[in-house]
## 1
Amino acid sequence: MLAVGFVAQWLAWRVKLPAILFLLLAGLVMGPLTGWIHPDRIFGPTLFPMVSLAVALILFEGSMTLRLGELRGIGRAVRGLVSYGAVAAMLLLAAAVHWIAGLEWELALLFGALTCVTGPTVITPMLRTLRPNAKIANALRWEGIVIDPLGALFAVLVFEAILSREQGHSLGVFALTVLCGIAIGCVGAWLLAFVLRRHLIPEYLQNFGAMAVVLGAFTSSNALTHESGLLAVTIMGIVIGNLRGVHIDDIMDFKENLSTLLVSVLFIVLAARLSWPLPDGTLLTGIWVFLAAQFVARPLSVLVATVGSALSWRERALVAYVSPRGIVAAAVSALFAIKLESLHVNGAEQLVPLVFILIIGTVLLQSGTARPLARWLKVAEPEPHGVLVYGSDPVARTVARALADADFRVLVADDDWDGIRAARMAGLNTFFGNPTSQHADHHLDLTGLGRLLAMSTRREMNSLACVHYRQEFGRDQVFRLRNLHPEEQNGRQAFSGNLVGHALFGEDMTHARFAGLLTDGWRLKSTRLTDTFDWPQFIEQYGSGAVLLFAVDGGGSLRIAAGRRLPDPKPGWLVIALVPPDGTQAA
């Protein structure tokens, strides 16, 4: 299953679709369609505890991404989508599944809470293909980031209410369960923060320790009050993600990688448990629920959430169309269904098929039709001409500033805080973090960007960035500034360098040489060529040592000097060149 999960994740990356689609399809093929695996036989009574622990870690990782301080800056539309818009969506979805599928209101509300959320794992790949304008992209991306943990919290609370009712518990027992989960979550977050702030464990054990605290909080909460563990880890993630002075970047990276592994195996196992063919009428019912969710519930909830926002009716229409469901809906619904089926709750067996049909339907339909709809509504971005600059030292900042002054969208990305702070002071758009991480996959806005310039001082990271973005932008749109001169490279280094990206600014230009020229007083000069002042006259004025870096042709396209491929500037073009101080030549 690990190998199949890896292939599904790789295929999703290759075709730029959410991985959950291929994982669910793989599980359906391996389970009900072919009978190759039978999860209940393989895992036996350990299936429910294993799924519970996996879902707990997934919810903790997702809830850590919620930054309450960022809610103030995300705009009125997003605040509406993740608050009263989410409540409206939950109620509309509950009504749809109640009237169409005949689920009792308790289960219908649980279905609504599970499926009112999108999520970064499904929105981010879709936005890369959709390429809407910046307002739509920001609204959809922030909705996915914020509503993912909030939706999990909604679902857990509804689930706790159903369990209390089915087990004959009073309202007081339900309140005690909720309070216990909240208390254990806060205590667990405080304990983890205390250990991290005082450096009581070495860095190489921090990830291990964090996972131990999370699972300890989950099991302790369940032991004190039945089935409160999921609420505890969700609260714990939200609290630890918002505490100041706690460095959790490494923990988040570890949890992201662990979640990828867990999701890959978990969804194959859960999909393989489905019976095939589905019970009579389930498939048709699921399709009707999907249509109601797509064309009734989502548009109405977006209409309510965006009243008075800055979005135009065209932008609101696209936001109302794009709402793929993702990891939280699939993972949590399957876990809840297992528990509810063991309690013989009427209709619990329909929960997972209905959720999976909705997931597959929204991902397939929206992936194939959202881009044409965006074009028809005239809210799609034109072909991406912007530039992602990896690196924030003076060389990278100087090049980025010149491109920004030439009216190109430029984003400087690096995990060096001093460099990023200097880039922000220079008026450049920035992303603080490793641009090849999963955190960047969820939070780095690539809208309008179509090229990578890897210009950091770290040769290995430049190569990794080129490999990472080669699939995103295309092999011909990935460039790197050499860190070593060709004569300094051995055969393996030269061969691998040629594979990952084109060498910027000529075969002999290196990062150290560029930095040295800037130190010696060289500067970047942007000039619009004319019939009376063409490129040969530019060279005559600034010297044959001037280095052509970029040229912007008459159509506004950026041409990059890379390797032996140098632009041939013509009158009317804008050229950006590295020129020496007056009276000097190239070193």
## 2
Amino acid sequence: MNKNIFKPVLALCAAAVMGACSLDEYDPLGTDTSTSLTEYEKWYGMQTKCYEPIYSQLYTVVDFMSVAEAGTDLWLTAKNSDNTKELFYYESLVPFANKYWDKAFIQAYTALGTCATVIKNGEKMEQTDAVKTLYAEARFLRGFYHLLLTTYYGPITLVNHSVEDGADLNPKRNTLTEIYTSVINDLEFAMNNLGTTPYNNNRARATKKSALGFLCRAYVQAAGQGLTAPDGTSYWDKAANLAADFVADTEAGGSKYGGYLYDDISDLWASNNNRTNKEALFVAAGADASMDTETWNNANAGKSKLFTLFYWNQTLCSDISKITSDKQNYFYGRTNAGVFAPSKYLLDLYTPSWDKRWENTFQTSFGGFSMQQPEWLPYSSQSIKLSPKVAKLYGISLSMANKYIYPYADCAALPSTSGGNQYVASVWPKGETSGDVSKLQKPKNVYVMDYPVAEDENRIFLYLSKEKMTAEDKVNRIYACVDIDDLFDETGAYLSTNVGNAWAGKYGQTNPLYQAYPCLNKFQWNYEGVFYGSNLQIKNGDVYIMRAAEIYLIAAEAYQKLGNGGKAAEYINKLRARAARPGVTAETYKLSNATEEDILDEFARELCGEHQRWALLQRHQAFRTQLPKGNKRAAATYRDIHKWRPISQTFLQQIDNAEEYGDNGYGTTAKSGLEGFEQ
């Protein structure tokens, strides 16, 4: 990986938050040669840096994921753990003790200082085609960051002045109306001035469809705050019209906006499509040699740890998985940090008999791996001869004793000059037990296993079953079987122990699989170029910040809010159609009239884990109704102040009027700071 070509920026921006240095001071090469650079070169370097928080922090690590998905109806802590109870359950929530919301706030404001400087100086540049495009990108990014901040933190301070204008240590909040007006103006400008092809063909840069997508988000988020457009038009109307236009254009070929929707949901999540995804509207790009002249190919780019947040650690059943060290888990990665476990409510939303989103969203079948190709872990050494003792421990029929569980995947160790060894996995065909690497196959996604699991499957060690399985269902299966419902206690929380409860009676007091759960596999990538060498906590895949399916859902959401549930259902049915299994009739999944509950449920099925759930519940004012469905523990402690995340303590400590500015009502300042601004 190349070294980061930009220096860290620690100056205060015009709103007295972390921001950027001035263009005169800026040296994109991090050297003493800034005087030899043209104004355009310095401006271009700073413009590129506007993207940095997106690919290096916001969409790669736990901070923003915790802001955007934790504390909702979709996610619980594994083993009902308390170590992140502030995030998931609003318990003991003391703002200065929680780094996640603080960091996300600062990351967004850091970029705003840079955006403001780029915008001001861009207006002074010779207006070449390149400058016009890059200027429109900066306007998009300013709208993007302001929208992120107001979505989660409410009435914040707009940063529309360059750092060159001086710092304001007594910032004032803006009203929600002022903020959304600014956001929408920026996004409309970007949509009207960006092309359908990204600048320099760099997939990480914003395009027309990026701006359209976030404009749709801004419309519905503003509508959810009870706001109306300056011309008196309903923001729900604006969202419905723009989203419908995008869908119509997409279905006609996408010539206007560049939109695309895969016909088959499995193609969306195929490994070969991760870095060339036609459905993506905007991405946090992973490091890639094709972008080596841009900031995305640097020491910070794309070092995503998101997959680790959603996976349980397979070493807990090493006697049947053969995975003995999380530091050498070349197939799943180092999965010792799993905390986001799907709620029963979320899992119950899926009907796997027709919906392929089930296995393309959650991994429920787990197999071991060999490394026959590099001769690190021979196939024969990773095949497990099931002993009677191990069979009894995992509730496997003793008739399976002395039979073999074979590896599911085989991982290569391809040398690479960018990122170290690449542990690309192939799959051993079912029934092929020779260990002959010429027999290996390349599926679309190695973490998506066929549903339903065959009774005679002998390449997996664990199956988490959506349907309840009887003893007769399990007797001829060599792998451990756990009913997903049995992973939860009577309150809907995950089991914290395997002793003294129903688990012990059904599965045995020593069976460790109560700690397993279905794993979100949207960030579990496997292809050449995605690995970060021996650091198995990191993968360099592209994270889809927004994709076309969300615009279909926004269209449905807006039409339902406007009282047209029939029209809303049409957009939901389009997404269901591409998720349906072959042979399934439309009558199986088709909606005729969508309710608000249908909208919330379909957003969950399609977009769970994609940094959107908290925002959706916020704009529907649905925490009180949804938390009891999926997160009873949070429902018991949720209070009205939680409608906004707390203002950053780092920010409040830097300004002179913290007590007046307020922390959104969390009690660390004399005032909430919200009065008069939530309008």
